[in-house]
Amino acid sequence: MSNIARLSVREKASLAKRSPYEDVKIFLKDGLKKGRWRAGEKMPSEADLIGRFGVARMTVNRALKELQTEGLVERRQGAGTFAAQLHRVSSALTIRDIHEEILARGHAHRADVYLLREEPASAEIAERLGVAVQSRVFHSIIVHFENGVAIQCEDRFVNPKVAPNYLSVDFAGVTPTKCLFEVTQLWKADYAVEAALPTAKEAKLLGMVKTDPCLVVSRRTMSRSHTITSARLVHPADRYRLEGAFAP
Question: In CATH, what class is 9-84?
């Protein structure tokens, strides 16, 4: 007998307008979001899902395949389906550690920390982090160098609830991205990329002229229950380019 109860009549009625595979996918995705299955834990088997939803195996397989493509689950032949480890979710979201990115090019990385402190959240930062205005947040400004050339000014705010020891980390030796991946459970992220001019402070830190164009990435990451961090990443346009690849 399946260890998952069948759907009630009311539940089935509410899902009637969706495709069968979407019902399965939403059920699993919602469970992951609520923490029903933690990273690395085994999830319901195909047989369990077939019994719960009364659908064909190919329908369940489609839902699981899409969740795997999104980086949310890991399927192991002969073992079952497991909630994805954090690094797999991070990879699916294309959040890259600049230290690893530079090393992959065979170059040397260096980070200079210009600011690392606790401060009250402005209205803008409070909204970005989902905290109260004037509540205490962590703020860091770090410039990253590739072979001695400044390629990124990282201006980051962090929610203390999810990374209480953030201010004690030596960011000359580890990037904030790597630090936060290790101590938080990443669920999702949003970002925007635009061409813009640097602020006067950013231009000075990057050793560039204020009228030189930049590639600016605004990024926010969230766990299942809290916003983790909000960062503004400024790159001199003539020293940096975003790269990626896709394979079926």
Answer: mainly alpha
